[in-house]
Amino acid sequence: MRPLKSSGNLELIKRLILKMQEGGGSLSFSEFMQGCLYEEGLGYYATGGGRIGRRGDFYTSVSVGALFGELMARQFCEVDELLGHLGEFVICEQGGHDGTFAVDVLTWFREHREGVLERLKYRFIEPHARLVELQRRNLERAGMMEHAGWYSIHEAMPEMEGVFFSNELVDAFPVDLVVWREGAWRERRICWKGEEFGWCEEPVGERLYDAVKDLPNAFEGYRMEVNLAAERWMGNVARRIRRGVVLTIDYGYRRPVGVPLPAERVDGTLACYRKHARSDDPLREVGCQDITAHVDFERLIAIGERTGLRTEGFTDQHHALVGLAEGDFLREGEPPAPEKLRAFKQLMHPELMGTSFQVLVQSKNLPGLKLSCLKYSRR
């Protein structure tokens, strides 16, 4: 092999080249992104990437402190009340990283709802052994292992009553890319240029046809992401809920059917992160940087409704947390502790997390649902 211009994990680069050769000379972007992020022993997340906080690659709501978990725990408790406080109450989290959020939630229940904690089962869906080990370690330190359990895939999890929760999960699902060329959508794929990865385009095939056939026309060069994995995920989650709530928090947008594509997203929403620096080039630092794309919540809503979920509300994190905080520490005459107020301001800040993160609430077999996170919903 000639010297490479593409940077990153050399073994992963070789493996991706081999997959291209075996697959006809190119890879869909979702195959490439799957390898970059999740290839066993080589991908970004599979080798310890995804570190959060000041010394990591990005911040999350969980990295701000325990307040986010405490507020979500209050929301979960409301769901338990609506379920009637009967029998086992399940909180299932997918994308739980190192388990910090789970510890924050379970600690709140231990301090404020010990009776619910006795019935509570906290279940992780986590396919990566490294992350399972981190989650176990943190739960053991907190003395919460008796409440925890793990599944590697959705299909292994039995039907549940409770809350299915995810935070910054769907934006990391591998996506396909399309571009508008001469009056039609075409697929953007990855090919090998001899020394580095590059882009190539092909007509949209059967795999992506249904996903793009209803997209509006665009102007020349307009790029979009297609998240087939998110649609499969939404259907799987809906089938696992017997009674309860699906609460999804992520970067994203909602574009009603028939509305023209916004000009400000002409280049799509794909982004890469490493050491808090943003890049638009997923073909460099292969396996060493995070790759994300904004979530199309309208498609998640449509899939959910087709598979038995009821859409309860859609809002941003700012308005969701105001509703939850009113029942926690924003009480009249009771000034919040300074550390809580600092964390709350960061979670609410419009240029950080407050309006960037969207909150989708769906339910199944739970009529009359009224949740605090939707109290100030504007959409």
Count the strands?
A: 16
Count of helical regions? 11
What string gives the helices and strands in order?
A: HEHHEHHEHEEEEEHEHEEEEEHEHHE
Coarse morphology: globular
In terms of quaternary structure, the protein is single chain
CATH class: Alpha Beta
Number of self-contained structural domains: 1
The average pLDDT score comes to 89
What structural category do the secondary elements indicate? alpha/beta
Please compute the radius of gyration using only Cα atoms: 21 Å
**Can you give the helix content as a percent range?**
25-40%
Strand content: 15-25%
Biggest β-sheet description: 8 strands, mixed
Please name the CATH architecture: 3-Layer(aba) Sandwich
Low-confidence stretches: none
Q: What is the terminal separation in angstroms? A: 54 Å
Output the CATH topology: Rossmann fold
Please provide a written account of the structure.
- By secondary structure, the protein is an alpha/beta fold.
- The model has no long low-confidence stretch (mean pLDDT 89).
- The termini are far apart.
- It has a single domain (1-379), classed as Rossmann fold, CATH 3.40.50.12710.
- It is built from eleven helices and 16 strands.
- Strands 2, 3, 4, 5, 10, 14, 15 and 16 form an eight-stranded mixed beta sheet that branches. Strands 1, 6, 7, 8 and 9 form a five-stranded antiparallel beta sheet that branches. A three-stranded antiparallel beta sheet has the order 12-11-13.
- Helix content is 32%, strand content 25%.
